[in-house]
Specification:
With 98 residues, this protein is mainly alpha-helical. Helix content is 53%, strand content 11%. A three-stranded antiparallel β-sheet has the order 1-3-2.
Length: 98
Amino acid sequence: MIPKITECMLPLLQYMGDKEIHSAEECREYISRVFNLSNDEKTILKSKDITGWTKHRLRTIGMLETVSRGNYRIKEDGLKFLRTTPHTKENPFKEYGY
């Protein structure tokens, strides 16, 4: 089952929590592993650019930054969110409008 953008936001932010720079492809591969996607589902994930839209939303609310084209890094607000927000909430990004 293809995850929704809102379902990808927390896992992707957690992945980025290592403070390293990650490429768009690395992000897509990570989401594919987290949701145990089949090859067909991976193709759909890529064609719909689910991880791209996920990164866009995280950048919009100030948690990720684009370091260079196709490369991203977590910002301090993203790290703070990971430290302070209970991840057991159904939608921890609801307060941001997602």
